[in-house]
Recover the amino acids of this structure.
């Protein structure tokens, strides 16, 4: 009996100890776990708990608008919808990405690549944009099914809309999604943001963009918004009023339909740009929506290069337009008189080479050489003046360097020198190079904006203004032409004679009640064989035809204009570019509107 009782006591004690051990062990486990959750991971779970009831979202700032000089809207904003993913809320990312591909019709591999590209740039609890610019049909479907896919969000933000399509594509440029380099270099940008890529959208990016705001929202477990408040209000980008006259721009673009080239109109007294057309243009809205690979390849392979801003980025031989520079230099040369005559028999021989003029002019003085555009006169002038004097004077007159217009990637053209040729070709300068330079051929290259700026200086008293695209931009201090007043006045009056004279090559520009001066230019692209010299332009293969220039000014007591047209492969300047400039003059002075440039 006593033995049995003793055994019972031992088992009771063992059970009590075991129970106590288990209780202590559980207590220790819970204590460690509580310490882990509340102390070691306390801050993490506190933030996570807060995130479960509070969300923060960026409020996109509307981009600044573009308006023309009369207040006509050129670029606006409209609502755009993007699909975003919050990785932290998504239970199965791969399945969700497959579903996004089904919703949008985008290739699954592209969706995955976009997700992988952005995941390192966006925090796990923020919206990561996967697909932008959702169509209304796709948006409706996603909104219907999104509640069954945790982490899928619809984000609303402003999207750029260009109201004039191709007409202003090279002036305004376009916006598109920021790339990785842009995102890394600018902390204000986030994945899915659009930034200016070309044109004024690029150069004025900082003032057009504005600043994002921030919204805080309280939500319940199902994601329903219970309360929201704006923590930081967004600041809209500044709107920009251009100096461009929209109706004049439209007119110029229509005149260039089916042609490649440029049309520029400047207010000669201020340097403001009233028209800047590069033809052909492109639809800049395609880039906002995300241009397709097919359309992008079509743009790149187009032989007329619609993405090229010909007004500032294309270099052309100036042809006979350069004779204006030569005449200014010759007028200031103490050994040259305007009355000195040269006999033009249609050719000029230098050594064994024969340089041609476009016709037999007979006896030619400086005035007649410009009015009738005689090459032989300038061959002899160039042979005597030499490259050193010509190049220095041309650069001082605004050629061979950028004008400073507020558009990206402006090219400087080329005024050749002895040093340049040696570096470029490892050859010395030759006599024939002087002759080609004197008539704006050979190595000489210029841009239409340089020609327009130069002609403006001829009519405004000798002031080279920076071409301005903004109506409120303060007029810059002009750079003076390195010309005497006598030289400028001579060229000014001779340009008028080129329009008003019986044999002037720009006679088609005559305008009653307006002082108009002009100069034609036919820039040789390649040397034609003798049997083709007299052919009609249509008989010559397009890419072999000469470029056609017309540079003009128009002056009344109220205002002066510089007008330049270039038609690529158009043949002679008078035939190809002359009608374009004439139509612009008719628009300025005959359109039923007052004070076009006010």
């Amino acid at each position: 009996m006593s033995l049995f009782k003793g055994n019972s006591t031992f088992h009771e004690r063992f059970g009590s100890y075991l129970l106590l051990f288990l209780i202590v062990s559980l207590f220790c486990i819970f204590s460690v776990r509580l310490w882990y959750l509340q102390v070691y991971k306390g801050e993490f779970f506190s933030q996570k708990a807060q995130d479960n009831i509070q969300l923060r979202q960026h409020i996109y700032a509307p981009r600044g608008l573009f308006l023309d000089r009369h207040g006509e809207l050129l670029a606006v904003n409209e609502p755009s919808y993007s699909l975003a993913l919050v990785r932290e809320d998504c239970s199965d990312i791969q399945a969700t990405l497959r579903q996004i591909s089904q919703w949008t019709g985008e290739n699954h591999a592209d969706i995955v690549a976009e997700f992988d590209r952005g995941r390192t740039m966006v925090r796990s609890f923020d919206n990561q944009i996967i697909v932008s610019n959702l169509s209304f049909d796709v948006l409706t479907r996603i909104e219907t099914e999104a509640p069954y896919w945790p982490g899928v969000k619809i984000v609303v933000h402003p999207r750029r809309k260009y109201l004039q399509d191709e007409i202003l594509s090279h002036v305004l440029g376009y916006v598109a999604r920021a790339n990785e380099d842009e995102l890394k270099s600018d902390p204000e940008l986030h994945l899915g943001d659009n930034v200016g890529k070309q044109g004024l959208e690029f150069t004025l990016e900082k003032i057009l963009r504005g600043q994002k705001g921030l919204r805080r929202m309280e939500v319940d477990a199902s994601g329903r918004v219970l309360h929201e408040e704006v923590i930081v209000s967004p600041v809209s980008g500044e709107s920009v009023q251009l100096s461009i006259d929209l109706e004049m721009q439209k007119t110029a673009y229509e005149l260039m339909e089916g042609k490649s080239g440029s049309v520029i109109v400047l207010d000669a007294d201020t340097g403001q740009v009233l028209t800047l057309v590069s033809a052909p243009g492109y639809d800049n809205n395609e880039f906002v929506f995300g241009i397709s690979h097919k359309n992008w390849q079509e743009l790149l392979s187009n032989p007329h290069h619609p993405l090229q801003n010909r007004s500032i980025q294309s270099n052309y031989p100036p042809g006979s337009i350069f004779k204006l520079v030569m005449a200014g230099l010759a007028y200031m040369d103490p050994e040259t008189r305007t009355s000195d005559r040269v006999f033009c028999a249609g050719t000029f021989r230098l050594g064994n080479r024969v340089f041609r003029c476009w016709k037999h002019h007979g006896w030619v003085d400086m005035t007649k050489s410009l009015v009738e555009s005689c090459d032989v006169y300038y061959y002899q002038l160039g042979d005597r003046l030499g490259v050193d004097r010509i190049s220095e004077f041309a650069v001082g007159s605004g050629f061979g360097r950028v004008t400073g217009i507020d558009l990206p990637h402006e090219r400087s053209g080329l005024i050749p020198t002895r040093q340049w040729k040696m570096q470029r070709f490892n050859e010395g300068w030759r006599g024939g190079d002087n002759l080609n330079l004197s008539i704006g051929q050979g190595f000489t290259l210029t841009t239409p904006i340089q020609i327009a700026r130069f002609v403006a200086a001829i009519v405004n008293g000798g002031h080279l203004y920076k071409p301005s695209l903004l109506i409120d931009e303060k007029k810059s201090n002009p750079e003076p032409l390195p010309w005497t007043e006598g030289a400028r006045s001579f060229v000014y009056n001779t340009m008028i004679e080129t329009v008003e004279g019986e044999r002037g090559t720009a006679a088609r520009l005559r305008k009653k009640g307006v002082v108009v001066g002009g100069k034609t230019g036919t820039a040789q692209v390649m040397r034609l064989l003798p049997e083709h010299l007299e052919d009609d332009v249509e008989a010559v293969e397009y890419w072999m035809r000469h470029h056609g220039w017309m540079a003009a000014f128009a002056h009344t007591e109220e205002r002066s204009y510089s007008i330049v047209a270039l038609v690529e492969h158009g043949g002679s300047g008078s035939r190809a570019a002359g009608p374009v400039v004439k139509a612009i003059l008719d628009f300025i002075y005959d359109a039923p509107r007052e004070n076009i440039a006010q």
Notes: The chain has a mean pLDDT of 87. The chain has 22 helices and 21 strands.
